[in-house]
Amino acid sequence: MAKLVVLAVLASLISTVSCQSWTWSIYRSWGYPSPTWGTPWTYNSAPATWTTPPPPPSSNGLKVGYYADHNCSNAENIVRAAVEKASAGILAGLIRLAFHDCFVRGCDASVLLEGSDTEKQGFPNLSLRGFGIIDAAKDALEKECPGVVSCADIVSFAARDASYILSYKKINYTVPAGRFDGKVSFANETLGQNLPPPFADLATLKRMFADKGLDPTDMVVLSGAHSIGISHCPSFSDRVNPPASPSPSMDSDLAKKLNQTCDTPNNATTTVPQDSVTPDALDSQYYKNVMSGKVLFTSDAALNSSETLELVKKYAGSDDWNTAFGAAMVKMGYIGVKSSKEGEIRKKCGVINKS
Ligand code: HEM
């Protein structure tokens, strides 16, 4: 139990760490040592130094209906059956899981690997959820067609199925498949250069998505996923009390509510819905929220700028966004895809196969 509490605290602190000194002092005040990773927190300054080159989007032979051609025609149904058992919160987690997988070493299930120093232990990933659904799908798949379906494809299928359910069947796209699973995963690669932090400004967001082969439109469209799920208070502590005064760009009623909810001794474990208007629906309400200042993160509020406002207005309350979201998820799913030469089909999603 004590371990769980520590994890929850860490999870909620992941996003408080910035180049601003007050966030560092909050971080230290919880008694955790400064991170030992090598990459400095330079999100808002010059382009981050790459330890590895950004994986370019590549087709790498992905194909819709891949498993029908590979003796596992039931593969996508099996994943769907597992996803259908998930709660709304876990479904949200599954969509975020795909994003966090693809942005670090490409869509290769490196986010699922267990170990003391793997991506799963990286700060931004401590609040990920949905792993149990992926494991359940994998177990069922290994019974039906052993050694065929990659964990990377399971993550992609699960995000698609979660989107379908949470959008009340409005987001409905096909997933090109045939990814292989990576064999490498490092906690420190979740920080700095790969996963954007919630305090990122527009220039940083554009740069970090461009590094993955995604353009500003993809970035705006994918950010609409913040119409579901939850956030821990520290993830937006740069915008509300304590310690900063409420952001002027935040709706005053929301700011008041968040200040009350988060200004408590257990601030670090307290959560709030990302979208207070339609919390469990994956819909274009997010864009209305961006325009009315009812979003949590600096990175969400950044979309209310002259550069992106036309797109935000276009998607606000429009069903066009559903199709655009599916297309952007497919595009994201091509990031750094591994072939059979570079990867493997794991037997268990949490561990690489014994050679
Ligand atoms: C644009 C840059 C992005 C930033 C800075 C960002 C940051 C965050 C943060 C800080 C949280 C809350 C973590 C917590 O406190 O528990 C969160 C939650 C979430 N994010 Fe993002 N995110 C971004 C893009 C995306 C994308 C592209 C997707 C998916 C396509 C996504 C899906 C989600 C979902 C579904 C949740 C809620 C998860 C849950 O309830 O378990 N995010 N994001």
Could you list some keywords that capture this structure?
13 helices, 2 strands, binds protoporphyrin IX containing FE, 355 residues, disordered N terminus, Peroxidase, domain 1, mainly alpha, two-stranded antiparallel ribbon, single chain
Describe the structure.
This protein has helices at 2-13, 21-29, 75-83, 88-102, 131-144, 151-166, 202-210, 216-223, 252-262, 285-292, 298-301, 306-315, 320-332, and strands at 230-232, 271-273. With 355 residues, it is mainly alpha-helical. The protein has a domain at 66-188: Orthogonal Bundle (Peroxidase, domain 1), CATH 1.10.520.10. The protein has a two-stranded antiparallel ribbon with strand order 1-2. Helix 4 (88-102) crosses helix 6. It is globular and about 55 Å long. The structure holds protoporphyrin IX containing FE (HEM). Protoporphyrin IX containing FE binds next to helix 4, helix 8 and strand 1.
Query: In which order are the strands of the major sheet placed?
Result: 1-2
Helix count from the secondary structure assignment: 13
Largest sheet: 2 strands, antiparallel
Quote the distance from N terminus to C terminus: 36 Å
Low-confidence stretches: 1-58
Radius of gyration: 19 Å
Unique ligands: protoporphyrin IX containing FE
Task: Write down the secondary-structure element order.
Answer: HHHHHHHHEHEHHHH
- Please state the second-level CATH architecture of the domain at 66-188: Orthogonal Bundle
**Shape verdict:** globular
Short description:
Helices cover 39% and strands 2% of the residues. It contains 13 helices and 2 strands. Helix 10 (285-292) crosses helix 12 (306-315).
